[in-house]
Structure formats: C-alpha cells, structure tokens
Amino acid sequence: MKIALSCRSILLEKSLRKFLEAYLVPDHEADLIIADHPMNSEKPMLRIGADHEADLSKPFSRSRLMIKLEEKLRADRTKEAVTRLAIEEEGLEEKIARAAQRFAEELTEIIKEHYEKKR
User: Which domains, ranges and CATH numbers included, belong to the chain?
Assistant: First the structure.
C-alpha cells in the first residue's frame, strides 16, 4: 500500500504521517491519496472531513483509518478487476468473431474447390 497525503490541516497531516510513515510515498508513486479537501485525481482518494461526502470523519483512531484504507483499496481493486474483465471479454468476443470469419472463408474456399473439380 503506497499512500500520498494532500492536507490543508497541518495537525491532520502530522498525525497521518505518524500513523502511516511506512506507507508514505510521493504523489506520482501512490496507489491512494488521502486528502482533507475535495480534489480531482485519477488515483483513488480517501477523504477525511466533517461533511457527509467524507470517507472518514474526525476524530478517528489509527485502526479505524487502516480499516477505511483497506476498504477503499479493496473497492478500487474490484473496480479495476471488473474493468479488466470487461476488456478481456471484448477481446474474447473479437477473437471468436475473427475465428468464425476465418472458418467461414475457409469453408467457402473448400466448397468452391470441390465444385470446380467436378466441372
């Protein structure tokens, strides 16, 4: 688990750094970003705050934080797996369509050859 922080609250950031020191990496290397403010990111986010959109509300314990992080990463991996499966299914459908097309072309050639020999 690689985590990046984006906190406006210095106190929250220091607490998170203490709780997560073994998991912290720069933004570009992170699997997940923890933020205390809304932000746009392509990476999964865990938002800490007092509003109803926050994933985790303050105050929280280290164990509650870790549980939320695991839930968030598990949910994201599930989304990735579903997307990957959909892409693989499309690939399978394309492979089957190509195989069916080749089979039809080969069958047509065999039939043509068969009737041309009889002439």
Answer: 3-118 (3.40.50)
Q: Among 14, 46, 49, 12, which Cα is nearest to 32's?
A: 46
Residue 12, helix vs strand vs coil: helix
Is 48 in a helix, a strand, or coil? strand
Q: Which two tokens stand for residue 81?
A: 């797996």
pTM, full prediction: 0.61
CA-based max dimension of the chain: 91
pLDDT digits (tens, 9 = 90+) for 5-34: 999 999 999 999 999 999 999 988 888 899
Using a 10 angstrom Cβ sphere, with 0-12 exposed, 13-18 middle and 19 or more buried, the burial of residue 84 is: exposed
